[in-house]
Amino acid sequence: MRQQSSRPVERSSSERSDAYLATYLNDHLMGSLAALELLQQLREVYAKTALADFFTELHEEISSDREDLRALMKRLGVTESYPRKLSGWLASKATELKLRVDDSATGALRLIESLEVLGLGIHGKLALWSALRTTADFSPRLQGFDYERLLRRADDQRWRLEVVRLEAAKAAFAGTQMMLRPDDDASRRR
User: Fold this and answer.
1) Residue 109 and residue 177: Cα distance in Å, rounded?
2) Which of 100, 114, 121, 167 could form a disulfide with 35 if both were Cys (CB 3.0 to 4.6 A apart)?
3) Nearest to 126 by CA among 152, 106, 162, 104
4) Mean pLDDT of 16-40
5) CB 166 within 8 Å of CB 173
6) Any idea where the domains of the chain sit in the sequence?
7) Alpha carbon distance 41, 114 (integer Å)
């Protein structure tokens, strides 16, 4: 019986790059799913508040970003990884459990922690689009995608989320009322 080598199979530089890119894109696709699930929960919890419109708008934008990512993956021939999708779902459930343990559904701590989780995801999305934009200069197959538009949208999401996060921080840690009203455009300003 021939003993199998424990060394990994050597891949060409191109194959390795393709595998890295597929993993990277699937990781971000997984993250977007977790963000959408969290936003759906927040929309339901805050349905009758001024935050409902903010969470609905952010959900729609992240859904659109996810579709842009899926379109890029399709164009590159990258298939969705179901094991990664499952791990993303499990991670979102673990996050949900952690948030439930910390505070009630409408609690100020739960809101700020939820907003910070979303902020981390948006920061990751900025990193994704920036990395792909930079890499496109060296990889023709990544060219022809509007990374600038995606970067602007992610940056806008980051700043709007930050306004709400800071209001939530004041409510959580200083006992103030959140100052956002349905007609207040503070969640749209930097």
Assistant:
1) 13
2) 121
3) 152
4) 93
5) no
6) 81-188
7) 10
